[in-house]
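Quick one: structure for this chain?
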Amino acid sequence: MTSLNDVLPVDRTALLTTLGPDGPRTRPVAVQPDPLDEPGVAAVLTLAQARKAADVRERPAVTLAGATPDGFYAIEADAEVVEDPALVARAMAHFVGGDVPEGGAGASAHEGPATVLLRLRPRAAKRWVVHSPRPFDSDVEDLEV
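Got it. Here's what it folds into:
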């Protein structure tokens, strides 16, 4: 059985769907490793005032989806908004490829907009392996989370 770590889109772009007051909202996000190194957990940086952060605060159920070399995946997860400056700085350093001092990830008005981290803890995941563009020519697999 394929595991979630085999398809988790770390250091890639994926589509994140949150549930807002007016229904689902989907947008591309840059996915990166969890700064706490928890297996299977993905992280996304965003502005503290971003709609996706507000959506997650209100309704933590999200879906992360995208393409694999041979098909597609969808991960249903519980997300949390993390405001810890040390974790945000660690994630920002990974994102920009260098060191960001603690508090240097936009933690004050003098440095720019505040940045938070969304941590996505998977509950369920599926992968579709597409063999051809013909209808019904694919396999669906539940992933181990």
